[in-house]
Write the structure tokens for this entry.
Amino acid sequence: MPLTLLLIAVFALAFTVFTVVLSVRVWRMTDLPRWRRVLPALLLCAALAASLGRAWGVTAVAEAVAFPLNAAAALLGMYERERWRARRAASGERPEAGTGSRNGEGR
């Protein structure tokens, strides 16, 4: 396999992992409405389904839809994450502040 194809495959895998991590982080934001929490994950699932179509020879859909849906899921996840940080900062909390323990005792 040529080096170029290997680099493209590594980039695609890294981008997919990045999008999955963002989707999970947005999904766990309980202060968002449910549809806004689920939207990045749904876009990612639709993109993966379109990409899976290549295995059955449906390449036109995969070429037209898969990358834009992946990009939309990543951009939406980053947007929701930044809005969440801005809301937390405006309310006086540290954006990444945790309670220090799982059961909420102390800091």
Summary: The mean pLDDT is 86. The CA atoms of residues 64 and 86 lie 34 Å apart.
